[in-house]
């Protein structure tokens, strides 16, 4: 029987076995699946693993997540306060960097695997590996050094430091974030994650100018990824657009998989990548809150056909599905991606 | 000479080069350009140009919006110190992040642009309850309430912009105070502002300037009609 892992391996080689891999990023929905509040749900790795497995069986997509919420990375750095919502993702409430002096004092944890704040994630990964390892790709979310400061000091303060702050302070922070990243990716790999989503909104020219992307983002990307290599790494620009930088990242860094934003033209993404790497067609999942299942199906058709018209190194994906999306729309999306992603060369 | 200053200033802003922009302004003042000319004939037209370019699909990025706003606000603040007489304030706006939302960058970009345009801004900070948006708008005679939301649940939540609208309705304030929203979810769903019952939305912080100025004008027109 074909597994999700088989589908992904086939797609990476430009083949389709039964249908393209269908990635659906369900995170907070796990709380509803288990009948828990979002805060209770994210307090235990067992909860997250159980819900991820349940949701994958229920909806039939091709991935599970070890990600709790993005603020987890700030907690590993010492953030003490997370703001929980009843209907959305938890957020960092206290930024550990309040001023530039705090950057000097910022400590990168020695051993992330042994960090108490990593313990629940490790538990989650252990269960996922035991239950679905080798069959369903297990995803981890790791924020690039260029983007991590946004959750350590806030987007506003990071933008200010990046654009008009002292260069030596900026570089010190980037170096610490990159050191953290190198340890984090190693910890996730050791704990059993297969797909390492390298999240870098500041690696998109929606956020920063091309010159800064070339001077800084690429440089720090290379440093982040150099020790552990590129195996399983997916370049994800956090929902921003990818197309203007995709070629540069392929040539300069050589990442093997790309996750454009929903506002990118997917056919253009595929043409730019041109078979050199795997590429996702990503749906604008905020719209799934209000669309009918019929509208969802049509949009999935447009995306999947738009990608596959170039070649088969293609998979379907979502950004981070909002909590309130009706289940019938999730089902309609996944069914349609399988239906339209079942083509040609087999 | 002013034409050269305008051209050089706009290029520096587009290049996100604050040091160069400030130097251009400083040199112009040293050569006799008045602070009033700098604000009204360099900074404000520069902002207008950016707003127009964005409306025509000119591809820019968040860093450019941030720097456009910061440079405009910095220059205006400095020039105002040397104005012959205080400029006319063209409107009042209260702005904040929706309840449950702690993001500040978009709001800061909007505030910088508004201040440069001689609009008085009351920044209510983050995680602002709907009741406070309305009470502060009344206290400051604001024509516009700006609600920033970077997450889907804070953009669409019952206690965010939707509640501000309900309070405006209940208190009969809809002709006096307009509700403008912005933030990432609105970019990904341009119809979302209607779902949350806002009067208008802006795709980015710089474009918010025109949207808010139009709303201020609409309220002023309403005031005239209502005597």
Structural class of chain A: alpha/beta
Tell me the CATH topology of chain A: TIM Barrel
Say what oligomer this is.
heterodimer
Summed over residues and divided by their number, the pLDDT of chain B gives a mean of: 95
> What is the strand arrangement across the widest sheet of chain A?
1-4-5-6-7-8-9
Question: What share of the residues of chain A does DSSP label as strand, in percent?
Answer: 5-15%
What is the CA–CA distance across the termini of chain B?
45 Å
Q: What is the 3D shape of chain B?
A: globular
Main sheet attributes: strand count, strand direction, barrel closure of chain B:
5 strands, parallel
Tally the helices of chain A: what do you get?
A: 15
Q: Number of folding domains of chain A?
A: 1
Q: How many individual helices of chain B?
A: 11
Structural class of the secondary elements of chain B? alpha/beta
CATH class of the largest domain in chain B: Alpha Beta
């Amino acid at each position: 029987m074909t597994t999700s892992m088989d589908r992904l391996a086939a797609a990476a080689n430009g083949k389709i076995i039964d249908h393209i891999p269908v990635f659906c990023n369900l995170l907070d929905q796990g709380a509803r699946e288990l009948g828990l509040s979002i805060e209770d749900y994210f307090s235990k790795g067992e909860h997250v693993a159980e819900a991820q497995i349940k949701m994958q069986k229920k909806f039939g997509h091709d991935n599970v997540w070890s990600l709790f919420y993005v603020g987890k990375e700030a907690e590993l750095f010492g953030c003490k306060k997370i703001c929980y919502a009843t209907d959305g993702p938890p957020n960092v409430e206290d930024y550990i960097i309040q001023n530039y002096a705090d950057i000097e004092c910022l400590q990168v944890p020695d051993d992330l695997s042994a960090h108490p704040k990593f313990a629940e994630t490790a538990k989650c990964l252990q269960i996922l590996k035991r239950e679905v390892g080798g069959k369903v790709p297990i995803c981890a979310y790791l924020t690039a050094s260029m983007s991590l400061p946004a959750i350590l000091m806030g987007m506003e303060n990071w933008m200010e430091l990046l654009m008009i702050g002292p260069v030596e302070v900026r570089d010190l922070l980037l170096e610490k974030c990159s050191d953290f990243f190198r340890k984090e990716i190693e910890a996730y790999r050791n704990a059993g994650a297969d797909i390492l989503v390298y999240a870098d909104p500041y690696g998109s020219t929606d956020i920063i100018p091309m010159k800064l992307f070339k001077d800084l983002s690429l440089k720090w990307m290379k440093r982040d990824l150099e020790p552990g290599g590129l195996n399983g790494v997916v370049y994800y620009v956090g929902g921003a657009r990818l197309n203007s930088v995709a070629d540069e990242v392929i040539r300069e860094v050589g990442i093997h998989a790309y996750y454009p934003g929903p506002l990118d033209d997917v056919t253009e993404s595929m043409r730019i990548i041109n078979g050199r790497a795997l590429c996702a067609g990503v749906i604008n999942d905020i719209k799934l809150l209000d669309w009918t299942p019929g509208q969802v199906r049509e949009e999935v058709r447009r995306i999947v056909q738009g990608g596959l018209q170039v070649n088969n190194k293609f998979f379907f994906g979502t950004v981070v599905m909002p909590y309130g999306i009706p289940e019938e729309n999730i089902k309609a999306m996944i069914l349609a991606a399988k239906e339209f992603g079942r083509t040609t060369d087999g | 000479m002013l034409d050269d200053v305008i051209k050089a200033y706009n290029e520096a802003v587009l290049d996100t080069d604050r040091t160069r922009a400030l130097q251009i302004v400083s040199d112009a003042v040293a050569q006799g350009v008045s602070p009033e000319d700098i604000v009204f004939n360099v900074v404000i037209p520069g902002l207008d140009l950016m707003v127009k370019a964005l409306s025509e699909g000119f591809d820019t990025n968040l860093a450019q919006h941030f720097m456009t706003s910061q440079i405009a606000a910095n220059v205006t603040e400095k020039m105002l110190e040397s104005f012959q007489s205080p400029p006319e304030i063209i409107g009042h706006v209260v702005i904040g992040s929706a309840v449950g939302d702690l993001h500040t960058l978009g709001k800061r970009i909007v505030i910088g642009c508004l201040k440069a345009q001689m609009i008085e801004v009351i920044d209510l900070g983050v995680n602002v309850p709907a009741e406070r948006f309305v009470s502060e708008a009344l206290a400051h005679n604001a024509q516009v309430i700006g609600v920033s939301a970077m997450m889907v649940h804070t953009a669409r939540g019952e206690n965010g912009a939707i509640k501000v609208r309900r309070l405006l309705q209940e208190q009969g304030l809809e002709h006096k105070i307009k509700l403008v929203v912005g933030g990432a979810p609105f970019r990904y769903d341009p119809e979302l502002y209607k779902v949350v019952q806002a009067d208008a939305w802006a795709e980015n912080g710089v474009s918010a300037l025109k949207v808010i100025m139009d709303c201020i004008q609409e309220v002023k027109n309403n005031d005239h009609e209502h005597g």
